[in-house]
Amino acid sequence: MSTLDTEAAPGARNGGAPDAEAPADLRFDTVAVHAGDRLPLEQAIPTATPIYATSTFLSENAAALDAIFGGTRKGYVYARYANPTVTALEEAINRLEGGAATVAFGSGMAALHAALQVVEFAPGDVVLAARDLYGATHTLLHTLFAPLGVTPRFADCNDAEAFAAALQEEPRPRAVVIEPVSNPLIRVLDVEAVVRQAHAAGALVIVDNTFATPYLLRPLAYDADIVVHSTTKYFGGHGDAFGGSVTVRDPDREGTLRTLAKLLGAVLSPFEAHLIHRGTKTLALRMERHCANAQTVAEWLSTHPRVAAVHYPGLPSHAGHAVAARLFRPGAFGGMLAFEIAGAGQPAVYRFIDHLRLLIAATTLGDVYSEVSYPVMSSHRDWSPALRRRAGITEGLLRLSVGIEDPADIIADLDQALASAEC
């Protein structure tokens, strides 16, 4: 095999870092492996954060590598520990939420799991959760934490007296898990009051802020301890990326979170991080349109003869309207709503879904396009019918994530689909 006499392969010194004095006599197959890699940027700063698609990072020498491994110097060594593209997203979310630190995870559920582990529960401890949380959160508490001796306890956090009683019940909870906007009934929780009560009882507060986003509400501003997101949703916003994040008020919790991510391998890929970070740049613009469209659609649904109830905090009739008006961004009530088709059971709901032409039947939310979800089929499928009834989740309830399309087109599609759902 011949050598290449005219082209030196870059990056060939002992540490593998860029070096102008790389050997000039490397053979063809060696050059094919190394050529073009690890080139210096010559003081250039990229306008957009690059996708660092690499599993490992090199240092200028062994001593520098040792310092990074030892934590005495900032840097990157292995993508499971940290990646610059992921770091950029973490910084963006942390700034938006106003936290001390943010750690990204591979999914919203991985993020929630990590947030709960940060509490460092011991056997016999109690976690108090809102009764109408996301269905998978209930399942997580029952299937992963209950077997470890952690007792899930549920309460109506919108009922101040019931919540206060649950906090005082022995053993007192070590942590409280809440959603400012509940899934799927879009109930609005007074985060300020709940955090105050929970802290007085000695409990940490974990807030799943996925539905509200920091555009509407920043829970840390009301002294919540930990904020969780499924960044798959509004942060990403385009239905093409999957991820989660945990933001903490206490900087001392960051190390535990990073250790959990590293040891569990629940890390976010740089490709997903790039897409989600790009989504954060238009979050404010999209949320403004989501909120305006949802208000228009909710007002229209509230007048439709085939609709028995509309759950949207922008309607003055909504039980949480005053709380939302006080806590949320002025004039904005979110892009999520729910509505109940009058007298409908599963067959009528299925007809409605099958007749949709524009709206997408998808078990997700927060995307630029409007999405309909049937909780009985999806998010709360594992709940017993009795439990769903107690929570207010009826057979005719549908959740609607209102997109950024023209609202007249959204309404027209809902109108024709509702006509098909005649019982």
Notes on the structure:
With 423 residues, the protein is α/β, with parallel strands linked by helices. It is 36% helix and 13% strand. It is built from 15 helices and 12 strands. The protein has a 7-stranded mixed β-sheet with strand order 1-7-6-5-4-2-3, sandwiched between helices. It has a 5-stranded mixed β-sheet with strand order 8-9-12-11-10, with helices on one face. The termini are far apart.
Q: Helices, strands, pairings?
A:
Layout: H1 28-34, H2 62-70, H3 84-97, E1 101-105, H4 108-118, E2 126-130, H5 135-145, E3 151-155, H6 160-168, E4 175-178, H7 191-200, E5 204-208, H8 213-216, E6 226-230, E7 244-248, H9 254-264, H10 270-280, H11 283-301, E8 307-311, H12 321-327, E9 336-341, H13 346-354, E10 360-361, E11 371-373, H14 385-391, E12 397-401, H15 407-420
Parallel strand pairs: 2-3, 2-4, 4-5, 5-6, 10-11
Antiparallel strand pairs: 1-7, 6-7, 8-9, 9-12, 11-12
Helix pairs in contact: 3-10, 4-9, 13-15
